[in-house]
Amino acid sequence: MGRHSSSFNSFVFPVVMGCLAALMLSSALIYLYLEGVYQSDEKLVSTHAGCLSQHFKLPSMENCSKWLQCSQIKSEVHKVKLIGQGAVKKVYLADWKGHKVALSELASLEYREDFLHGLSMLQALQDSLVVQLVGFCLENNSIITQHHPHGSLLNLENVLAQPKYQHLNTWHIRLRLATDYVSILHYLHNSPAGRRVMCDSNSLEKTLSQFLLTNDFHVVINDLDALPEVNPSGGMLVKCGSRELTGHFVAPEQLWPFIDDEQPFSDDLMPPYDEKTDIWKIPDVTQFIMGRTPGGDLVHFHLFQIHKECKNVLPRLRPSAFDVLKTYKSVYGAVVRENRDML
């Protein structure tokens, strides 16, 4: 009996230790993989393909090329189909020398000022966080940009539901997308063209439609038609349009302050505001991006405090986009470590 017990123990012990070692090794490999994913993501934040100013390089191109001018756009760019339409512009999938591009055309002369503002912002803000400008022509009011087949962030759930992308439906990919979104806000609030506010963001759906999902699952801002400049210290504030805004998505300071007095809305009496309206909306956008993926609850737990601060009714007490960005990156590392410890 004793000999059998001894031999059994001598057999089981190495097996158990081997299993534990394998588990620890796999945990370490997963941790290193996740860390590598996040670090490599950070390295992707650079200028478009290393091209010079006023140049572009599509993924299917070997070399950079100068922005397309009117003559090239008129003769070389051919519409394929309509893929989007708003008040300001119509957007077509188009072909340029075998490369798929997005062709935006002014939808109504009434909105030409907004159209030109969007073009000026595209020119001034070219960065890896902004859709790549390919060319433009003022003669026929057209803008060419890089085409992203996944479309806007509104399509996120449908894209991740596709069998070939289901392996990317993870908390760390979704948090990466949310981090991209906050990075874009930080860039806009500290841009080469001054401190810019996203005014085309009066609902969750409208806000999500301003951003595109790239093929490598990052986020770029696409619609720059309504980006007024603010400078609070210099007394330069904004109002997003001349109509009354309603609902829970917009920041409190964007709501008509005299509604309890039953006073009719007046744009002249409506107080202006600054970029902290963008901060108020971060928790709602991130909630959508995170979805219901496993591990998301732990992410929301870690983000609770910063999101609470984003929802402060006093704009001056809300964090900056940079503060939120730092927290998001910190939370990513914390959740990776906690997942590693649980394995």
From TrEMBL:
SUPFAM superfamilies hit by this protein: Protein kinase-like (PK-like)
Signal peptide per UniProt: none
Positions of transmembrane segments: 12-34
This protein's UniProt keywords: ATP-binding, Endoplasmic reticulum, Kinase, Membrane, Nucleotide-binding, Signal-anchor, Transferase, Transmembrane, Transmembrane helix
Membrane topology label: Single-pass type II membrane protein
EC number: 2.7.1.183
Main location as per UniProt: endoplasmic reticulum
Localization: Endoplasmic reticulum membrane
Gene Ontology terms describing biological process: muscle structure development; protein O-linked glycosylation; swimming
Cellular-component GO terms for this entry: endoplasmic reticulum membrane
A Pfam match: PK_Tyr_Ser-Thr
Annotated catalysed reactions: 3-O-[beta-D-GalNAc-(1->3)-beta-D-GlcNAc-(1->4)-alpha-D-Man]-L-Thr-[protein] + ATP = 3-O-[beta-D-GalNAc-(1->3)-beta-D-GlcNAc-(1->4)-(O-6-P-alpha-D-Man)]-Thr-[protein] + ADP + H(+)
Residue ranges of domain Protein kinase in the record: 77-343
Ranges in a coiled coil: none
Gene3D superfamilies assigned: Transferase(Phosphotransferase) domain 1
Function summary: Protein O-mannose kinase that specifically mediates phosphorylation at the 6-position of an O-mannose of the trisaccharide (N-acetylgalactosamine (GalNAc)-beta-1,3-N-acetylglucosamine (GlcNAc)-beta-1,4-mannose) to generate phosphorylated O-mannosyl trisaccharide (N-acetylgalactosamine-beta-1,3-N-acetylglucosamine-beta-1,4-(phosphate-6-)mannose). Phosphorylated O-mannosyl trisaccharide is a carbohydrate structure present in alpha-dystroglycan (DAG1), which is required for binding laminin G-like domain-containing extracellular proteins with high affinity.
Name the UniProt record assigns to this protein: Protein O-mannose kinase
Highest classification ranks of the organism: Eukaryota, Metazoa, Chordata, Craniata, Vertebrata
